[in-house]
Amino acid sequence: MTLDPKTWWYVTRATGFVSWALLAVAVLWGLFITNKTLNRSTAPAWVLDLHRHLGGLAVVFVAVHVAALPLDRFTHWGWGDLFVPMATSWHPGAIAWGIVGMYLLVAIELTSLLGRRFPKKWWRRVHMLSFPLYVIASIHLFAAGTDSGNIVVTWMVVTTSTLIVFLTIVRTLAAAKPRETRANPRTAAVRAHALSVAADPGAELRVPASRATTGDLLPSATELDVPERASLPVRLGAPTLADRITRLHEQTEAAARHARDVTTVS
Predict the structure, then answer these.
(1) pLDDT digits (tens, 9 = 90+) for 13-28
(2) Which member of 17, 116, 143, 167 lies 3.0 to 4.6 Å from 94 by CB, making a disulfide possible if both were Cys?
(3) SS3 content of the chain, % helix, strand, coil (to 5)
């Protein structure tokens, strides 16, 4: 059984197009995540893992795309032609775009795999190369690909590019917009107590007894507004010198009252 002479050429064309499609989906998926377009109930770990897997699959198909080229009988490729821009004599400009895109894809994928081991600032900078990578891959697809004249391929690239531009603009506007801060009753209670302690070291924050046994030192605003409930004094932070003196004075008075009561009874 012999293979069709054009088999490896078909493999090269197919893997190249699939690589572009995976890259486009990975960019769109990343924009969906950053724009919070996806349902919040989706597990964040699953969402991020899918984004990484899309990039990993793109690398695999690019590797097959490059490895199949030397096996094609209609073109002649050396290893230098596959990894050095402008080294080949067959459409050198179009192939140079593909080689640069391959290096960018590998760099982005390596930083994604390193994750926390890579400095966050540089990780962001390298990851932002996904946008020029998509542009470079699209140029390579139309400049070197024989399917660039296909109307389906053309409209697919135009539609995907339009969606990427739209989501990028939305993301940019959202990043430039100042974040709105919402009032949190618990945070407000802590801030109010901190201000009161700064003004008066003996200030106390009282919470209901039912809450004091749960370890929750931050009651809601409704609980603080009900003074008739049984309450226990709770202090936030280490006691000051004034607190210790007051406590010692209270214990001394209590011991004196107890002694007087015992003397009276006897």
Answers:
(1) 899 999 999 999 999 9
(2) 143
(3) 70, 5, 30
233 touches 204 (CB < 8 A): yes
Contacts of 34 (CB under 8 A, 6+ apart): 171
From 170, 113, 105, select the one nearest 131 (Cα to Cα).
105
Give the global pTM.
0.62
> Which amino acid type is present at position 184?
N
**Structure tokens of 254?**
């209590």
pLDDT digits (tens, 9 = 90+) for 137-193: 999 998 887 777 788 888 999 999 999 999 889 888 877 777 654 445 555 555 665
Residue 187: CA atoms inside 13 Å, Cβ hemisphere, count? 4
| Other beta carbons less than 10 A from residue 72's beta carbon | 17
**DSSP class of 89:** S
What's the topology of domain 7-176?
Four Helix Bundle (Hemerythrin (Met), subunit A) (1.20.120)
Tell me the residue type at 163. L
